[in-house]
Amino acid sequence: MDQKTVLITGCSSGIGLSLAVHIANDEKKRFMVYATMRNLSKGEALVEAAGRTLGKTLEIKQMDVCDENSIKACVDSIPERRIDILISNAGVGLIGPIECQSIEEMKAVMDTNFFGMVRLLKEILPDMKKRKSGHIVVISSVMGIQGILFNDIYAASKFAVEGFCESLAVQALRFNLNITLIEPGPVVTEFERKVFEEGLKTDLSKADKVTADMFTNIYLKNYKQIFDTFGQTAEDIAEHTFKIITVESPPFRHQTNSLYTPMTTLKYADPNGDLPIDIFYKMVFEHDKVFNASLNFLKLLRWRSRKSFTLDKPKA
Ligand SMILES: NC(=O)C1=CN([C@@H]2O[C@H](COP(=O)(O)OP(=O)(O)OC[C@H]3O[C@@H](n4cnc5c(N)ncnc54)[C@H](OP(=O)(O)O)[C@@H]3O)[C@@H](O)[C@H]2O)C=CC1
Ligand SMILES: CC1=C(/C=C/C(C)=C/C=C/C(C)=C/C=O)C(C)(C)CCC1
Fold first, then answer.
1. Number of domains in the chain
2. Which residues hold substrate (predicted)?
3. CA–CA gap between residue 289 and residue 292 (Å, rounded)
4. Which of 111, 200, 210, 252 pairs with 28 at a CA distance of 20 to 30 A?
5. What does the pLDDT read at residue 301?
């Protein structure tokens, strides 16, 4: 059986690192993983986690998704440029009031999260079309379908990713290609730490008092608890994604966090779009005192989405 090649971006930490190691450890050795990162000097954690798979089913390569030349050089270095499964994972977060963020900072988020994926596809899609085979997996977010307070730019970048992929999916089908958007809720990784630390450092002098107070005393104050309550591990996301790449008919969208599903379901329950906004408003402002209680309630709820797609049917 031929090994499938998997290229993953952003493997220096978090979801990318876990994904690379999880796939490279496949018992049946079905995959050759090219785990890429923009800065190879950050490769130590991956080298350690990769263990004996390094040089066998896992190889580390340089790739900066904001640099077309680095993408091309990396793809050219892969035998026959053959990538069967592309996992676009590299991404950055940004929280805070937009009054306190520069356009440059915002552009950097779009450049990594959205244009990073577009650059990657421009390089890889034509080969996949020629071969009439391939699976494009994009680590999106629940924020690719639903905006969250003080995540305006980050959510916009993930909405852009989703709009792009939804548009491309029909064309892809004509070439027998699959596209899947993985939509995690909060995941405890470097992302969480970096975003929180940057958030704490935000210069709020350009924001009015109400906004500054809302960001500091509601958003940042509850941030850690939200990750503690809902947070998945990078390994959880790797397990979900592994199932997605080994299933016979992969879905277009896949949410990984059943605790978060009640929130995203609100979006589809009201075509006017007011329901999630009203409920989020009430959760944040009117029920501040019961905010913790509602988080705990959601944790207990263990909602199971009734999806027709099941992950229990791996490829033969
Ligand atoms: N953590 C969370 O709560 C959630 C995360 N996601 C998404 O998951 C993905 C992975 O994030 P996560 O693992 O949590 O966070 P991490 O911060 O742990 O990992 C992000 C990775 O992206 C890399 N990266 C950033 N910019 C570039 C670039 N220009 N070129 C190549 N690599 C780059 C980072 O490299 P470096 O070390 O050099 O900075 C790092 O390897 C992101 O797309 C994120 O939006 C989705 C839902 C929830
Ligand atoms: C649950 C919830 C909130 C916060 C959600 C957060 C913070 C989600 C983070 C998701 C991440 C980090 C995704 C990454 O892509 C609010 C709006 C405070 C109140 C309403 C309920």
1. 1
2. 141
3. 7
4. 252
5. 55
Please indicate whether residue 188, judged by its CB atom, sits closer than 6 Å to ligand 2: no
User: Which residue, judged by its Cα, is nearest atom 23 of ligand 1?
Assistant: 10
ipTM > 0.95 (yes/no): yes
Relative to the CA of 142, which ligand 1 atom is closest? Answer: 47
Q: How far apart are CA 52 and CA 72, in angstroms?
A: 28
Q: Is 98 contained in some domain?
A: yes
Residue span of the structural domain in which 100 resides: 4-257
276 lies in some domain: no
Question: Is 280 inside any structural domain?
Answer: no
Q: Does residue 245 belong to any structural domain of this protein?
A: yes
Can you give the pLDDT at residue 263?
87
- Rg (C-alpha) for the chain, rounded Å, is 20
Q: Give 70 Cα–ligand 2 centroid separation in angstroms.
A: 33
Q: Are 134 and 86 in contact (CB under 8 A)?
A: yes
Question: Residue 141 sits in a domain of what CATH number?
Answer: 3.40.50.720
pLDDT tens for 48-80 read 999 999 999 999 999 999 999 999 999 999 999
**pTM to 2 decimals?**
0.93
Could you report the per-residue pLDDT of 1-49, keeping only the tens digit for each? 689 999 999 999 999 999 999 999 999 999 999 999 999 999 999 999 9
Binding-site annotation: residue ranges: 10-38, 64, 141, 158
